[in-house]
Design brief:
The chain has about 230 residues and is mainly alpha-helical. It contains 10 helices and 3 strands. A hairpin with a 2-residue loop joins strand 2 and strand 3. Helix 3 crosses helix 10, helix 5 packs across helix 6 and helix 5 crosses helix 7.
Length: about 230
C-alpha cells in the first residue's frame, strides 16, 4: 500500500511538472485568450452583462508605452529588477498593514500574471504555492517583455472587460496604442478593484489616484525590456 501511494505521488509530481512547464512554454508563443478568472466571472456577471465581452489580444507593440509605465508605477515599481518575487515590497506591505495603514499587497506583476493565467482566484496557501511555482517558471521561460504583454492582455479592467485593449475600446472608443497618459493612468487606477472602480464613470478617488499615478509615471520614465 505504501509503495503504491509513493508511486502514485511520484507520478502526480512528474505529471504536474510536465504539464506546468509545457503549458508555460506554449503560452510563451500563443495568445492567452481564456483564463480561469474569465470563466468564473462569466457565470458571476451573466445576470448583469449577459454574453457581452470586451476582450481582444494585442501584441505589446500595439499598446501605448504610457500604459506600461502606468501599471509599473502603481503595481510593481521593481518589475524590471526582481526575479518574480519582490521581497522588499512584501516586507513593506506587512509593515504598513501592521501599522493600520491602507491595506496593500506585495504581489508583483509577475505573480499577478501567473495567478490570472494558471490559477483559480482563491485565497489559500495551496493556490499561493502554485502561483509561486508558475511565477518562477514564467520569469525563467517568458522573460519580462512577454510577462508584461500577457499581463496587459488578461487583467480584469471592468465587468466582463479584460485587457487594456478591451478597456480602451469600451471606455475610450480607441485602440490601446492610442491611449494617452490620462487614460492609461485611469485604467491603472481601476486595477485593484475593476468591478467597483468604473473607468467609464470614475469616482473622485479614482481621479485623484490617477493624478498620483501620472506623477509616478514621470518619475520612472521610459521602460526598456531586454
Amino acid at each position: 500500500m505504501i509503495k503504491y501511494l509513493l508511486r502514485l505521488l511520484i507520478f502526480v509530481i512528474i505529471a504536474f511538472f510536465t504539464w506546468s512547464v509545457g503549458s508555460v512554454v506554449v503560452y510563451k508563443y500563443v495568445p492567452v485568450t481564456v483564463t480561469p478568472l474569465k470563466v468564473i466571472r462569466f457565470f458571476q456577471n451573466f445576470p448583469e452583462a449577459g454574453f457581452h465581452f470586451s476582450s481582444k489580444w494585442v501584441p505589446i507593440e500595439k499598446i501605448n508605452p504610457s500604459m506600461i509605465r502606468a501599471v509599473i508605477s502603481t503595481e510593481d515599481n521593481n518589475f524590471v529588477e526582481h526575479y518574480g518575487i519582490d521581497y522588499d515590497a512584501i516586507k513593506m506591505a506587512i509593515k504598513d498593514n501592521r501599522k493600520g495603514k491602507r491595506l496593500r499587497g506585495g504581489s508583483t506583476i509577475s505573480q499577478q500574471t501567473a495567478k490570472n493565467v494558471f490559477c483559480l482566484p482563491s485565497r489559500t496557501w495551496i493556490r499561493k504555492g502554485f502561483e509561486t511555482w508558475y511565477t518562477l517558471l514564467i520569469e525563467l521561460i517568458w522573460g519580462k517583455k512577454r510577462i508584461m504583454e500577457v499581463y496587459l492582455n488578461v487583467i480584469e479592467t471592468g465587468v466582463n472587460v479584460y485587457g487594456v485593449q478591451g478597456a480602451a475600446q469600451k471606455f475610450y472608443k480607441k485602440d490601446a496604442e492610442k491611449l494617452n497618459t490620462y487614460e492609461a493612468s485611469m485604467i491603472a487606477a481601476a486595477l485593484p478593484n475593476p468591478r467597483v472602480r468604473n473607468i467609464g464613470n470614475p469616482s473622485s478617488y479614482m481621479v485623484s489616484r490617477a493624478s498620483q499615478i501620472r506623477v509616478l509615471m514621470r518619475k520612472i520614465g521610459p521602460i526598456e525590456f531586454d
